[in-house]
Amino acid sequence: MVIEGSWxxxxxTGHGSCVTLWPSRRDALHRVMRHARAYMVRLRAVRDLLLVxxxxxxxxxxxxxxxxxxxxxxxxxxxxxxAFHFESPSGNIQCRMDAASVDCLLVTNSWRRLKxxxxxxxVDWIPTDMGMFLDPRTGRWxxxxxxxxxxxxPLCYKADPCFVxxxxxxxxxxxxxTHQRGIRCTSASNGITCTKIGRExxxxxxxxxxxGYVVF
Length: 216
Description:
This protein is α+β, with helices and mostly antiparallel strands. The protein has one helix spanning 25-71; strands at 7-10, 20-23, 75-80, 84-87, 93-97, 101-106, 124-134, 141-149, 163-164, 170-176, 180-188, 191-197, 205-208, 213-215. It is elongated and about 90 Å long.
């Protein structure tokens, strides 16, 4: 029988002595290292293939989202009872809304008259804060001008960023029960208008802008 590889002699080579052949340990180690290197090459190839695949999937996701956004109609996102945090294209009007309330504030304003701080407000008073909500006690929609708050409210900041509601687009957050109920906010160059959805009594909505506001 012929065995391939390098061989070394063990024992005496004199006359009549027994000679035993063993594979070289160094050659065996080289073979193990070659197999290990080949395995590592294949492993790196698989890793690179998975990396390329993940990049392709990410690109398709981004381009698909951009294409959907570009081809969308005048409507912006809509969801059942979902909360939205958004701002006008100028960034001057910043709002937070869900199906039962909406709160907006102005970063800068040119209102002629500002509501004064109430006597019972011992935290931050924001006179250009406007909110519309469905009062759970009376079942009526109400609008309040001026906000007494100890938090940032609808303000956009790095840890809680807003998305831009472009002019001509709107948001709706609705709840379905015996009938549809919720709020719709539309962005325009003359401000953001928010109106109620549903049959509940009370105000219909408001429009807030740098120059002033309207409740209707």
